[in-house]
Amino acid sequence: MPCTDEARTILWVSAHPEPRSLTGSLRRDGIAHLRGAGLAVLESDLYGMDWDPVMRPRDAGHEAGPSSPFRATADIRLAYIEGRQPSDVQAELAKLRRADALILQFPLWWYGMPSILKGWFDRVFVSGFAFGKHPGTGRRLRFEQGPFRGKRALVATTLGDRPRSIGPRGKSGELTELLFPLLHGTLAYTGMSVLSPWAQASADRIESYDTVRDGFLRRLDGLFTDEPIPYRPQFTGEYTSEWELEDHVVPGETGLSIHVGDAPRGEDRRP
Question: Which of 42, 67, 83, 270 is most enclosed, with most CB atoms within 10 A?
Fold first, then answer.
């Protein structure tokens, strides 16, 4: 991975309770590889941090009661605007602001993220910061207008399924569709350029750690050069005012794949 004159910063968020696991080992070697290439890496090891994944009224700086119900989105948005969020959340906001890329690493449990990582999104990706409307301009913050436009995102996951089970005809579903809520509904939604995910299937039965590690490091080398998934923009005429794909776009087709369009041209790779 070549280093640029201006070093880029990566936020690596991981969610596994055992640092000696395959996930933990890949995290250690991956971070060392990136730093060896001259990149800055910020870390959020959620289990190591004892991250609290539960959104509570304290996230809005108050306690809810009979006369003061907790309005999660609105109250936390106001707390964000006024700088009243808890210190653990504010620290994660600062990391995200600095990051040129986000790496999310986790084992796939019940076809989704571990709850501690879901709770990281719940508490950190709040209205006004990651979505909603810009507090100053009122601009809608989503997809090509998202606040994280210019940042890149890579999901790295391990799972117990066999490799072909996450293929186009696999029992578990094609990988980018299996991860659609995260890739499209969270990362692309907030404006990020989302790379095709990296996955290690049959993670409990690998024969050579070195082979897995080397393949993973090669994917990391493409973090700022690989083409992202070309999810369709929302505000350029492909969707109706009800956010449904227009009839003239891939007419007659349905399913998650219709929300992926043509490959981008001349993508601005820097924020």
Answer: 42
